[in-house]
Write the structure tokens for this entry.
Amino acid sequence: MDFVIFTVSMAALIYGAGFIIKESEKIALHFDIPHFVIGATLIAFGTSLPEMAASMMASYAGKSDMAVANVIGSVIFNITLVLGVVFFITKPIKEKRNLFARDSAWVIIPVIIFFIMIQDGCISRFDGILYLLLMVSYLYFLFTDSKENLENELDDEIEKEGFGWGKTLILLGVGFALTIGGANFVVESGTNIARTFHVSEWIIGLFLISLGTSLPELIVSVVAVRKGNLEMSIGNIIGSNVANFSMVLGASSLINPLNVDLATTRFDMFSVIIASVVLLFILANKLYNKAGAVFLLIILALFIQHSL
């Protein structure tokens, strides 16, 4: 029964987040907020809203392992699974944007800061504030980045739809109810599953929750690459990972300090570093092809084999 609750709750969490982002975009367009501003803020917020809801709820429940593992797992799955699939199906492209020059810092800096923070075995509220400041820095980067790129992130169909406050407010309410309720039941049912199968809450967060919250990125990225927007797909994953570390861990640690057992999670932490370094290598050498996909999927296979 807990598996059914977990699956339904995860679906509610993801759909609820989708409602919030779509209706927020409608409101912003209604008030004539520039497209690139909407794109920048929704990229940063929207891509990690499911992870944020799940980790904050876990932190509120005093389940630090689940909150942190959700972020670690999401980052690893985003790089290895999502980009692995994207690179496997993409066609050769002529790069318009130098992703290594523009975005490589955002691949590795959040990881470095994370490893510095956890050396004392805890992500404190002060650490959380620092991470939120990093999020502000990333938002500044997005605002000063190419406006055209940010405008392309918007859903053209939304702008064509009629706007009505009644419908929008109702859907926003439904979105928040699904997101908050879904996150609550995800944590609760995930905990029960861990107890039933005698596995740790860290493993539940690392695999079940993080994989579920990474599915929207996978779907969006595959659709983007099918439309020939490979660079947008890669940029979205990098942005999602920045938000996962800075916004999700930052907000979760403000609720309760997050304890991290370095001894038992060493391999998973090491996997985050390796995945990030391999992504940097791919960006530097423009290996947006099946060779790059194989590298990432091998890391994914090793990560799953050694962590389970």
Remarks:
- The domain at 2-307 is CATH 1.20.1420.30 (A middle domain of Talin 1).
- The chain has a mean pLDDT of 85.
